[in-house]
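Researcher: Let's do a round of design. I'm pasting the structure tokens now; please hold your answer until I've finished.
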């Protein structure tokens, strides 16, 4: 089976970019480490400016780097083999309160120990009290360690990138999901 690294589609123009206001106090890494987040308030609002972009995509850019998905992409994610916590948020235009839509932060909880260093490009750093840290520029994984997951993160301090299966890739094409770019990775 093929697997892909999921990223923001950077070739598009005029896509909405969301920003948090100064009162938003949830830590940057809260929704990227693959752990359940308690205490979410469904009244959270984030903002965008039409001056930066006005095209709604299924995966919206934001200044936290979190996986911000539309209802359409949320429904698709709920249909595949993964574990995800969805946290509702209202996305509003900063000058027109009537321009708003509900989106969800998709907190991917499925973390698998599938990093294949033999198929990856990386360098190691030893940190006292922590151990070896791998800085990976090109990922490779062990297919048999993915738990047949369609959307997942990697263990060993590699939780930031998201990875998806060939099945998920086919579904985003079939349902015309926008805002996502996929890069095939090496598989052992």
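Researcher: That's everything. Go ahead.
Model: Designed sequence:
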């Amino acid at each position: 089976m093929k697997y892909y690294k999921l990223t923001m589609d950077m070739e598009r123009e005029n896509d909405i970019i969301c920003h948090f206001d100064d009162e938003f106090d949830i830590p940057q890494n809260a929704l990227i480490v693959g752990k359940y987040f308690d205490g979410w308030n469904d009244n959270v609002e984030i903002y965008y400016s039409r001056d930066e972009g006005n095209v709604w995509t299924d995966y919206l850019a934001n200044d936290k780097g979190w996986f911000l998905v539309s209802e359409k992409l949320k429904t698709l994610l709920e249909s595949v083999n993964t574990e995800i916590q969805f946290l509702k948020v209202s996305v509003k235009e900063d000058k027109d309160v009537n321009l708003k839509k509900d989106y969800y932060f998709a907190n991917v909880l499925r973390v698998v120990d599938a990093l294949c260093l033999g198929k990856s490009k990386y360098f190691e750093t030893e940190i006292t009290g922590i151990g070896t840290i791998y800085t990976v520029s090109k990922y490779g994984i062990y297919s048999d360690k993915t738990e047949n997951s369609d959307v997942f993160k990697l263990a060993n301090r590699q939780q930031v990138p998201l990875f998806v299966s060939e099945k998920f890739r086919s579904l985003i094409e079939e349902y015309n999901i926008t805002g996502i770019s996929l890069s095939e990775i090496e598989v052992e």
